[in-house]
TrEMBL record:
Signal sequence range: 1-24
InterPro entries in the cross-refs: QVR-like, Sleep_regulator
GO biological process: regulation of synaptic transmission, cholinergic; sleep
Pfam family, one: QVR
Organism: Daphnia pulex (Water flea)
Key words of the record: Glycoprotein, Signal
Protein name, entry field: Uncharacterized protein
Keyword Signal: yes
Stretches that traverse the bilayer: none
Length: 165
């Protein structure tokens, strides 16, 4: 019995990594507001307010290698605000048409370098910022938004200030 060489192992790992990206990823999907099922949808569009990580929220993302979670603030006319969440596949594909053998064909390409794992804040004028989080492992967009209370913030900062001063 012989063991595979290092070169064979590297080739196998490269093969597996390209295979994974070709298949896409599974993510959780939910919307800020429920959308009625029109009958032609394979997955129902559940509201994030009912999100529990169960199978009705799982979706295949064949044209994505990242999952996305977006948290934003909805401002009501009466001055109230609500933090709203949306989960789904990261938008990474773009389509274009090519002429092959006299026929136009649509080609879908996936830009795998457009996102990195982590969160960013997008500021738009005077509105509260929108948080976009991207992750690249299966069903990774399940986390709920982190909300720090002022007491927790004090407990986190106090040791830092104590040791620095």
């Amino acid at each position: 019995m012989s063991f595979p060489s290092l070169l064979q192992l590297v080739h196998f790992l490269l093969f597996i990594s390209t295979f994974h990206s070709a298949l896409g990823i599974q993510c959780y999907r939910c919307l800020p507001k429920a959308v009625p099922n029109t009958g032609n949808q394979t997955n129902s569009l559940e509201p994030c307010s009912k999100f529990d990580g169960s199978s009705p929220f799982v979706i295949d993302c064949p044209l994505s290698t990242f999952c996305m979670k977006r948290n934003f603030t909805l401002e009501f006319p009466d001055g109230r605000n609500a933090i709203v969440t949306e989960r789904g596949c990261a938008q990474q594909s773009f389509s274009y048409r090519v002429l092959k053998r006299g026929q136009w064909q649509t080609v879908n390409d996936v830009n795998e370098t457009i996102y990195q794992d982590g969160c960013i804040l997008e500021h738009q004028g005077t509105k509260p910022p929108t948080q976009y989080c991207y992750c690249s492992s299966r069903l990774c967009n399940a986390a709920t938004p982190v909300q720090l209370s002022s007491n927790l913030l004090v407990y986190l900062i106090f040791p830092l200030v104590y040791y620095v001063l």
